[in-house]
């Protein structure tokens, strides 16, 4: 979540908003997908493997919906931010050891975050939920501020550290002393799986990037090795199978989480492309009317490619999807070849996304078709390719056309994603329950449109809460 800046030969520093916007889009659609009414919307409004009306997990189902893209887009944005955080710190003089310790610290904080919030979701505290569970959830939300926000007053550094450590101490006492629903007790294995995977990627993805930041080919070699281990681990009793299954801290780490490096590390390559381009160009220069027309064209193509994959893979038209995708990408390449400035950046991002997408679509029949859980290689490559297309489209909108006001709700959410992620469960739902407003929520079950409106309403409230804290410089950081 580090801020992205550039300094170019005396020019004032300027911000690249596309990464914030992509991250914000991912987190808001994550909230939306979790808050729409269950059971009454079309199947493409939910995870492909959790179809309505029962939403029971169906591991044999293959395909792709927009909901299956939101987490990979966040992972891709995480990887794309590595050059602007890790590499930038390294070039400012921070050594490998200091950076590794900082990476591990960040990962451990995210693990704690995943355990803490999961234990204090209202449904974990009471069945049925009651006033106690809602108040405890709000207390959890409030306690996260001193844990993850730098106190905005000038005091000695040791005071900041003392406040944070005290907050972690109070959180630990709450975890160990709270009575949970159905007689459950505190468990390290009770954690938010989304945040837990992010924590693993923050550790392993960051460390891989740190030692390969000047050679992306080494990152590709790392992915080849991981792919080999994943495939060979299917041989029960083999050393690779033992390595795959082994975990000294199974509540925190499992080898299977490393498969998401196939999204994070390609994201880091996209981040390298973006960072290098920013270093060598003035992002305020929009060049000429011809490039404006190309910008509209490439924006259309990048969004079209995403839609083709969603519609085609949802309906299992894998070969047609491959043909239409290749055709669209080829047209985009024709438009952008031999370009300079922004055109060169878009050209490079398009080629990276094209490579990932074509590999993923060619792998689609493998492993029984594209699936989110457990993630097939097709899913990992396709979603990383689509993440690159999304980054390209946001770069055109936010950085080239400077649509700052129209996309500010995305960028502010992207700058404060931890608050946006938990606002509904730990703040908004408890307040709505305490005030009795949720008793009117039955109206949202009368039709699919009303079911969607429920998600839109709750996501909008979470967005407003996030904007409120962001504008007041209340950022949660690990």
General description of the model:
66% of the residues lie in helices and 1% in strands. The protein is an all-alpha fold. It has one domain. The protein has a two-stranded antiparallel ribbon with strand order 1-2. A hairpin with a 7-residue loop joins strand 1 (5-6) and strand 2 (14-15). It is globular and about 65 Å long. Mean pLDDT is 92; it is low at 1-13.
Instruction: Give the count of structural domains.
Output: 1
The counted number of beta strands is 2
Q: How many individual helices?
A: 17
User: How are the strands of the largest sheet arranged?
Assistant: 1-2
Q: What is the string of SSEs from the N terminus onward?
A: EEHHHHHHHHHHHHHHHHH
Poorly predicted segments: 1-13
Q: What is the CA–CA distance across the termini?
A: 9 Å
Q: Give helix % range.
A: 55-70%
Q: How is the main sheet built?
A: 2 strands, antiparallel
Derived from helix and strand composition plus strand pairing, the structural class reads mainly alpha
Global Rg: 22 Å
Mean pLDDT: 92
Shape, principal axes of CA atoms: globular
Sheet-strand content, in percent, reads under 5%
């Amino acid at each position: 979540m580090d801020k992205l800046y550039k300094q170019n030969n005396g020019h004032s520093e300027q911000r690249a908003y596309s990464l914030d916007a992509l991250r914000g889009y991912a987190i808001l659609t994550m909230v939306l997908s979790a808050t729409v009414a269950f059971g009454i919307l079309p199947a493409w409004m939910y995870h492909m493997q959790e179809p309505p009306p029962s939403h029971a997990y169906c591991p044999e189902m293959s395909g792709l919906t927009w909901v299956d893209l939101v987490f990979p887009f966040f992972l891709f944005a995480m990887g794309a931010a590595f050059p602007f955080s890790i590499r930038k710190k390294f070039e400012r003089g921070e050594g490998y050891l200091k950076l590794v310790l900082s990476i591990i610290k960040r990962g451990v904080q995210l693990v704690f975050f995943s355990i803490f919030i999961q234990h204090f979701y209202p449904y974990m505290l009471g069945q049925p939920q009651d006033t106690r569970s809602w108040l405890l959830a709000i207390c959890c939300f409030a306690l996260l501020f001193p844990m993850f926000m730098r106190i905005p007053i000038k005091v000695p550094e040791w005071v900041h550290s003392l406040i944070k450590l005290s907050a972690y101490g109070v959180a630990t006492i709450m975890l160990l002393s709270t009575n949970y629903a159905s007689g459950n007790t505190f468990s390290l294995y009770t954690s938010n799986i989304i945040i837990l995977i992010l924590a693993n990627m923050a550790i392993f993805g960051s460390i891989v990037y740190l030692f390969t930041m000047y050679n992306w080919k080494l990152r590709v070699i790392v992915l080849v090795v991981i792919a080999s281990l994943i495939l060979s681990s299917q041989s029960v009793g083999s050393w690779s199978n033992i390595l795959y299954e082994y975990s000294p801290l199974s509540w925190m780490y499992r080898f299977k989480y490393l498969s998401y490096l196939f999204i994070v590390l390609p994201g880091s390559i996209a981040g390298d492309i973006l960072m290098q381009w920013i270093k060598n160009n003035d992002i305020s220069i929009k060049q000429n009317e011809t490039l404006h027309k190309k910008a509209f064209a490439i924006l259309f193509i990048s969004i079209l490619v995403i839609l083709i994959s969603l519609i085609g893979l949802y309906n299992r038209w894998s070969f047609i999807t491959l043909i239409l995708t290749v055709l669209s990408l080829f047209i985009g390449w024709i438009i952008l070849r031999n370009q300079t400035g922004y055109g060169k950046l878009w050209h490079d991002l398009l080629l990276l996304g094209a490579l990932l997408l074509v590999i993923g679509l060619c792998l689609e029949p493998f492993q029984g078709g594209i699936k989110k859980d457990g993630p097939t290689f097709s899913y990992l490559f396709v979603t990383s390719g689509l993440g690159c297309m999304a980054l390209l489209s946001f770069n055109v909108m936010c950085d080239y056309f400077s649509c700052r006001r129209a996309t500010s709700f995305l960028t502010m959410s992207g700058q404060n994603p931890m608050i946006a992620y938990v606002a509904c469960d730990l703040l908004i739902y408890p307040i709505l329950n305490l005030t009795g407003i949720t008793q009117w929520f039955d109206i949202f079950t009368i039709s699919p449109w009303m079911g969607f409106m429920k998600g839109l309403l709750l996501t909008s409230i979470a967005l407003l809460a996030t904007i409120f804290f962001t504008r007041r410089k209340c950022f949660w950081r690990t």
